[in-house]
Structures are given as structure tokens and as C-alpha cells.
Write a structure and sequence with these properties.
With 382 residues, this protein is of the alpha/beta class. It has twelve helices and 16 strands.
Amino acid sequence: MKLLESFKPENFLILVVDDMRKNLQLLIEILDTYGYGTTFAISGKQALERVKMTEPDLILLDLMMPEINGIEVCKILKEDENTAHIPVIFLTAASESNYLLNAFKAGAVDYVTKPFRTPELLARIKIHLDLKRTKDELEKAYEEMKRIAATDELTGIPNRRSIFNFGKQEFSLSKRYNSPFSVLMIDVDKFKTINDTHGHDIGDEALKMMVNVTLNCLRKVDYIGRLKTEEEALKQQARLAQLETQTETLAQQSDLEAHLGRLGGEEFVVVLPQTDLKGAYIAAQRVCKAMPEESLLVKKTLPLHTIPIIGLVLREINPMAGILFFYPTVKITVSIGVATYDPKDEKMDDLLKRADLALFAAKENGRNQVAIMHNGKLKLSK
């Protein structure tokens, strides 16, 4: 994790809340003098509005105010996930000390007694701003670590563990709601030949190209074979409504989009939530047909007297070096195995095995084609 930058007051905005204008003026003057950005509110209601508008880094909150007191304001802020992270320091008179326990229960991080000493006030503010930014950086680092752990480094798509976890979640949903669910197993044909002929760097670029083409094709599918009629759309809405009543969000269940993941080497899997066999087949065919339409240009060098005649796209001559540059194209094809959820399936592996058998058949029967394994029957399609 990178080191934190030195503390700079000008990088922080502090919201000062007090119903006494004299107190507000004094606090803002002190904070402005030390370089902090400031904003203010003169009531609890105004404070809640100002927080939404300005998103302060810290709040100095008067404990006792008319209408909505500081403790109620603090409770409201801590109950909202958008504001719960903002540290709240209470400003309290010595006679109000019996309310401090309730203030801490409401979510306050500290308090300062009025009349306050400026050095103490500034020290407490700095401590809690430092704690907040350290926590923020740790949370960012944690999220980045989770992203890295779930992502294939070369292609940027989900890795084996991540895509399998997602597939298992979708499998459980299909089993629970008896909803359609399909997978595609994709393998780049003769990938070893590309590596042996052009080198592993070009092989890596070919895999990236394959991922881009596949993702573009999956985006274009747009629920083909998923919600084909108004009746099915209404059924889908009813399912989502049922999920909501069970306090399960759509994001927790599925975003209903295709997910492409890399299993390793040149093998990939696509998880297709809410997609029946027809929809999965359409998606697979689209990927299979689109793949050879894309190509990579590979820079090669030959002695000047050599005349390349195969795959020549563009020549560049360097007479001084006696070198001829030419750019042959590299094209790839893929074989795809398709399988869809069967109520008899007990686990995700059952579905993956059928897709893998279909993939094997596609490769054994000439490559560059789609094969379906369904109800124990194999179907090949160029």
C-alpha cells in the first residue's frame, strides 16, 4: 500500500453546526486560519441538508439545539450508508456532560467542551481526519486486493475461481426458481501454433483480441432467447419482485448479463443467467462467426533481398540497415461447447461437464464450430 501524503488542512472540508452565530463565527475563523475548508449550518435540519450537498470530511456538531438536537442528527447520519463514515465531534457545554454517553451511542467519535481551547480542538480534528483517511486508504487497498484476486491479469476478465463462484450462484438460483441458465465453454483453436510461430507476446495479444470480440458479441445478444415474449417478461418481473420481498437485491442475485471468465491458457467460459438453450446457441454462433473477422498485425523483419509473398499487408524498407519490414496478419477461430441447466443437475460441475464434452466434440470434428450437449445428445453446427 502506498504511503499517505503529508497532512494538508486545505484538502479537508469541515461542517460546523451550531445554533449560536457567535460560536459559528469563532469556529470558522479558527479553521480558516489553519487552512481548512469550512461550511456551516445553524440547525439540525439544515445540517442534514448541508451534508448531502457538500459531503464534508468531518462534522463539528453542537450537542443541544432546538427542533432536532445533535444526538438525533448524529443518529440519522449514522443510519445512512452515504454519511455513516463521516466522523462527528460533539461540541458540548460542561453542564451537558451527562448527555455524552448517548452521544457516543449515537456514533460520535469524540467531543470538545465549550469554552474550548484552540490547540485541543485542532488536535482532535487532525487526529480524526487522519484516522478517517487511513481507514479510507485501507478500504481502497482491500477492494483493490479483492479485484486483483478475482481478475485474470492478462485479459482483465474474471479468473477461474471468480467465474466459477459466479456460476455456482447462478446454478443455485436456477435450481431454486427453476429458471433457465446456460454456459459456453470456449477454446482458441490451434493456439500453440500461434505461440510457436509468432511468439508468446503475440499469443497474449491474440487472447486479448479473443476476449474483446467475445464481449462485443455478448453485448449484442441483448436477451435474445431470454425474454422473447411479453408473458416471459412479466414472469421475470414477478420473479424480481419476489426477490425484493425476501430482502434480496437484484445485484445480490444476478445482473442478468453474460459473464466471461478465463479458465486458464486458451480456455474460457461464459455464464449466461436467465438464458435458455436457444439463446445460448445464438450467442455461441455469434462469437464463433465474428472471431475470424478480426485480425492482428504482426511486425516481422527480413533481409532486404527477401520478398515476402504470404500474408503481406504493408512493407517498410530501411535501406541503411538492409531490412524489410512486413506485417502478416494473425487470425484465430474458436470452438464452443454449449450446455444448459437441467433440473436433474445436482451441482454446477454437472453442467460444466456437458459443456466440456460438447467443446471436445467441436474440436474433434474440425474446430471453428459450435456443439451442443443436451439431453444426452450431441449436436454440431458450423
